[in-house]
Amino acid sequence: MTPLLSVSLVARVAVTSDVMALTMYVVLALDMSYAAAGAVVAALTGGVALGGPLLGRLVDRRGLRTVLSATIVPQAVFWLSVPVLPYAVLPFAAFAAGLFMVPVQPVTRQAIAAMTTAGRRRAAFALESVAGELSYMVGPAVVIVCAAQVSPGVVVWGVGAAIVLGGVGIALLNPPLRGEDEAAAGTAARPRRREWLGAPMIAVLVMGFGTTTLLSGIDLAIVATLKEAGQASWAAMVVGVLGLASVVGGLAYGALPRPMPVWLLLGLLGLVTIPAGLARDWPWLCVAVLGAGLLTAPTLSVVADTVSRLAPAGARGEANGLQSSALSAGFALGAPVVGVAVDASAPAGGFAVAGLAGLIAAAAGCLLSRPWSAVVRQRFALPGTEQTAAER
């Protein structure tokens, strides 16, 4: 587990930095607008969202190393060619690169589900969420500093190299994607999608989408609040406090003896986000976002844990790909929606809309999953059923 999480962290720092690297390149190197950079970023994000389930399905069918080989080469070609591509071609190339993005996060989650027992899986997913928070705290900041001090083109190459090296590292580790008791699933017929992609799984995906919509909106609302107060330079401090609180929350949640349902954590996250809009300067905003930070990593880890339990071993790759697509879609939608709210009202309205998005997703997930929970546990023999391993 330690080598996997270490290699995954390096690769995730690069993957979470790719949007910022492309933005800085278009704005600084090509001397174009942020809108032009946004078009490239949107193309990359759209490709990632569409490619996640497809790559996950290929992992289930063809194996990990086959998929990594098919994604590492396109990533190397794209990131090496970015500095020589004309802008008119760049969005299309970025979309193709998104389709073939190295599936670091889905593969890591799938390997965690295979390498851990039920009693330790929640703690492992909590560590994975903490690693994700660290990557978001470190990656974009390093890209911004290096792009300003060195060269945007060099930064693009560096990000691409890190993505490729991360993929190569995971391929060399070749972690198991099915547990020992699930080995038979590798040769058994692949389960039909309708057997596992039902109301409970859709509920978790909706709540994952709502979580990242909320988190993306919080970041924009923080910037808007401090800009109105004339303290925009303190935005990095507030976001850093948010990230550190998430790390603490993830570690604390992983040590708890009992899990919590996704809808409850997401609902609490939405509730504590709304009053953060009452803060008017950076010290109080640091205090106001502590609650949201403490609940961020636990919510994301429970989403990942629940997806791994609901998906049968033969379809876990596709399920993790769908989860990554839902999270990416939430990140892409959150900032524009909250931006509209801020423009129409005030920065406090941004926090309110972000919190309401989380509450709505939590309510929808609760309503979708509750009537079917007993059926799902019985069908897939989730923890808490009477079904034995021999019966499975």
Describe the structure.
With 392 residues, the protein is mainly α. The protein contains 17 helices and no strands. It has helices at 2-15, 18-29, 34-62, 64-81, 90-99, 104-115, 118-149, 152-173, 193-196, 199-228, 235-254, 262-273, 282-288, 290-310, 316-344, 347-369, 373-380. The longest helix is centred in the middle third of the chain and has 32 residues, at 118-149. Helix 10 packs parallel to helix 12 (262-273) and helix 10 (199-228) runs antiparallel to helix 14 (290-310). The two termini are 27 Å apart.
Average pLDDT over all residues:
82
Number of helices: 17
The percent range for helix content is over 70%
What is the count of distinct domains?
2
CATH architecture of the largest domain: Up-down Bundle
Report the radius of gyration as a whole number of Å: 21 Å
CATH class of the largest domain: Mainly Alpha
What is the percentage of strand-forming residues? under 5%
Give the termini separation: 27 Å
Structural class: mainly alpha
Instruction: Give the CATH topology of the largest domain.
Output: Growth Hormone, Chain: A
What summary fits the major beta sheet? Answer: none
Transmembrane segments: 32-51, 87-104, 156-175, 196-226, 232-253, 260-276, 282-304, 325-342, 348-369
Keywords: Membrane, Transmembrane, Transmembrane helix
InterPro entries: MFS, MFS_trans_sf
Pfam families: MFS_1
